[in-house]
Amino acid sequence: MVVAQPVTIKGDCPSVAVIGGGAIGLGIAWSLARAGCAVTVFDRSDAGHSASWAAGGMLAAGVETEPGEELLWQLASRSQHLWPDFRYALQADSGRDIGYRDEGTMVVALTRDDLEQLRFNYEFQRSLGIELEWLSSIEARRREPYLNTGTAGAYFCKNDHQVDNRAVVEALKRALVKAGGVLREHAEAAVEMAGGRAVGVRVGDEVLKADIVVVAAGAWSRGVEGLPEEVRPPVRPVRGQLLYLRMNPAEPLVRHVVWAPKAYIIPRRDGRLLIGATTEERGFDTKPTAGGVFSLLEGCWRAFPGIEELVLDEIVVGFRPGSRDDAPILGPTSVEGLVMATGHHRNGILLLPVTVEAISRYILKGRVLPEIEAYRPDRFRKVTGGKS
Fold it and tell me: What is the pLDDT averaged over residues 54-75?
């Protein structure tokens, strides 16, 4: 049964400190505040302005699924089904629209070689039960008139949607505070331990007690001070560069989310056009590169030559939290009072509702949902014989 919105259980609630104010941390905190918990979010910078700000906002459980991700597809699919009701609850609590769009997603091939890969992906995703529609080049250009005239073919997923990720984090911040939660920005928190368990957080010389500490610090999770070594998550920054162009919202160049061979392209209602994203192992280097910008522009231009007339508004660099197996790290750790919600890699916005549901229900009811059993933090210790 699909849960319509974040849990709203009233009654005895633990006090909770959340380290990390991205979409994941804010979402968990909002859900717990709605349930009556005393909850505080600590962010080392401006909340929501790291990976969540640099995301694309795609809810693409279907077209993003690759061979080897069959198990992750199940989690992503559940979260995708939760998104519409999660959206309504968030918009109602925050009073803000989050830019949910349901036109669907198109994946295109520009050459014969691309078409062979496209057909492979199409058949694989259909084998998982994903609802897809194959399109001829003519049908693809009927839906996207400004596609390259040489487009070889495409397929369409009507159930893969999008949200405006920046609107989501701003709505979460507002909803959290309205629900009675506390947000502390520019406050780098460390885990406070006593008697072998997490008892709160330390910010500078200040110690704030909490029954539960949730680490949701994204790419910075491994470096959170005070974490016992045996539960320090194997999370690293996977750098991504993203571009914002500006088009006429009354006559948009692109109407759907489009996956081209070397870029994804995302239109917003206000005329912004996102092109993303590079995947780089360069640590926390915040400087954009000419090569990264060029590759994104070229990848988009090959699909939509008309972008050369558009204004380049913004170059964004973000850091996806990549885990050792590129899957999220969710649930209680072996340290009492310490919970993980990190490692979402490229799927943080997509997996937001299911993460909020799973972590909130564990904290409120002490029950680990079956959907996250495969993503518990201790899976790395099992594989490595106790070494993380």
Answer: 96
How far apart CA 306 and CA 243 sit, in angstroms, is 16
CATH number of 16-88+165-234+325-383: 3.50.50.60
Beta strands in the chain (DSSP E): 16-19, 39-42, 58-59, 105-109, 133-135, 153-157, 161-162, 182-184, 190-194, 197-203, 206-209, 212-215, 235-246, 257-260, 263-267, 272-276, 311-323, 329-332, 338-342
Quote the distance between the C-alpha of residue 235 and its chain's center: 15
The two three-digit tokens of residue 358, written as one number: 């799973």
- Residue carrying the six token digits 């030559």: 305
Which pLDDT belongs to residue 381? Answer: 78
In angstroms, the CA 170 to CA 379 distance is: 33
Cα 23 from Cα 171, distance rounded (Å): 10
- Same fold? 16-88+165-234+325-383, 102-160+237-323: no
Count of CB atoms situated within 10 Å of the CB of 285:
12
Radius of gyration (Cα) for the chain, nearest Å? 21
What is the domain class of 102-160+237-323 according to CATH?
A: alpha beta
% residues pLDDT > 90 (the chain): 95
DSSP 271: S
DSSP 181-210: -EEE-S---EEEEETTEEEEEEETTEEEE-
| pLDDT tens-place string over residues 132-184 | 999 999 999 999 999 999 999 999 999 999 999 999 999 999 999 999 999 99
Predicted pLDDT of residue 8: 43
Residue 254 · residue 267 · CB < 8 Å: yes
Alpha carbons 126 and 128: distance in angstroms, whole number = 5
User: What pLDDT score does 382 carry?
Assistant: 54
Strand partners, 134: 155
Which residues have CB under 8 Å from 17's CB, separation 6+?
39, 40, 42, 189, 200, 201, 208, 210, 212, 213, 214
Domain boundaries, the chain: 16-88+165-234+325-383, 102-160+237-323
**The model scores a pTM over 0.90:** yes
